[in-house]
């Protein structure tokens, strides 16, 4: 199957920011709750909205607490990088007239404050953030919002992500899902395709020549 619309999750798919995210959560939790979490105890924060994480942690005012997290995150921005090959793959997709979208649990402010993502952000046609729909991932709403905004159909759309939330979002919207394994290796997550490296994306896109 070749797809015209290629949608991407950001964290763990386009950008390698796990270290920055985990370090920020450690710092913020210690400041707010006086508790220390080891890094492997914080994997649950990856892929979900920050406000939701604060609610899970029991913050009295989750939005204000997440504002503190966002402030601390700026101190770790230099730890964020694009995954190797992502910039080239996105450029090839754009040059071959694909429609590119972002489906993310980030806010719009978080998009604009990521130096790594800014290297390729201009190549994307549509960005659906956590505040753009009533229900975030794993609900179908973010992908359905993209389909509604662009006129795309589930049949010609592929969503690429690295988490169970991404997979469920695709399933709920009847869009095929490709699991990106270059961040954390293979996982037991439902998917139509399993991608070992970013260049594998080109095997499932509409283009005259997949090789670069």
Structural write-up:
The chain is α/β, with parallel strands linked by helices and 212 residues long. The protein has 2 domains: 136 residues, HAD superfamily/HAD-like (Rossmann fold), CATH 3.40.50.1000; 62 residues, DNA polymerase, domain 1, CATH 1.10.150. The protein has 7 helices and 8 strands. It is globular and about 55 Å long. It starts with a strand and ends in a 17-residue tail after the last strand. GO terms for molecular function: hydrolase activity. This is Hydrolase. Keywords: Hydrolase.
Report the radius of gyration as a whole number of Å: 17 Å
How confident overall, as mean pLDDT?
A: 91
State the total count of DSSP E strands: 8
| Distance between the amino and carboxyl termini | 20 Å
Determine and state the CATH class of the largest domain. Alpha Beta
Q: Let me know the CATH homologous superfamily of the largest domain.
A: HAD superfamily/HAD-like
Low-confidence runs (pLDDT<50, min 5 residues)?
Answer: none
Largest sheet entry: 6 strands, parallel
Q: Which structural class matches the secondary elements?
A: alpha/beta
**Widest sheet: strand order?**
5-4-1-6-7-8
**Shape verdict:** globular
CATH topology name of the largest domain: Rossmann fold
Order of helices and strands: EEHHHEHEHEHEHEE
The second-level CATH architecture of the largest domain is: 3-Layer(aba) Sandwich
SS summary, helix count: 7
- Strand content is 5-15%
Domain unit count: 2
The portion of residues assigned to helices is 25-40%
Organism: Prevotella herbatica
Keywords: Hydrolase
Protein name: Hydrolase
GO molecular function: hydrolase activity
């Amino acid at each position: 199957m070749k797809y015209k619309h290629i949608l991407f999750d950001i964290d763990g798919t386009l950008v390698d920011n796990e270290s920055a995210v985990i370090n920020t959560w450690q710092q913020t939790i210690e400041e707010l709750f006086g508790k220390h979490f080891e890094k492997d105890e914080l994997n649950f924060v990856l892929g979900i909205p920050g406000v939701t994480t604060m609610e899970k942690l029991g913050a009295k005012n989750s939005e204000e607490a997440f504002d503190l997290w966002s402030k601390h995150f700026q101190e770790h921005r230099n730890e964020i990088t694009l995954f190797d090959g992502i910039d080239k793959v996105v450029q090839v997709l754009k040059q071959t007239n694909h429609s590119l979208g972002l489906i993310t649990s980030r806010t719009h402010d978080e998009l604009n404050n990521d130096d790594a993502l800014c290297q390729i952000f201009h190549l994307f046609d549509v960005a659906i953030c956590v505040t753009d729909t009533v229900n975030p991932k794993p609900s179908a709403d973010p992908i359905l919002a993209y389909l509604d905004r662009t006129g795309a159909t589930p049949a010609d759309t592929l969503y690429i992500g690295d988490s169970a939330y991404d997979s469920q979002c695709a399933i709920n919207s009847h869009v095929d899902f490709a699991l990106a394994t270059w961040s954390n290796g293979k996982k037991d997550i439902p998917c139509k395709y399993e991608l070992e490296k970013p260049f594998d994306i080109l095997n499932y896109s509409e283009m005259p020549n997949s090789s670069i």
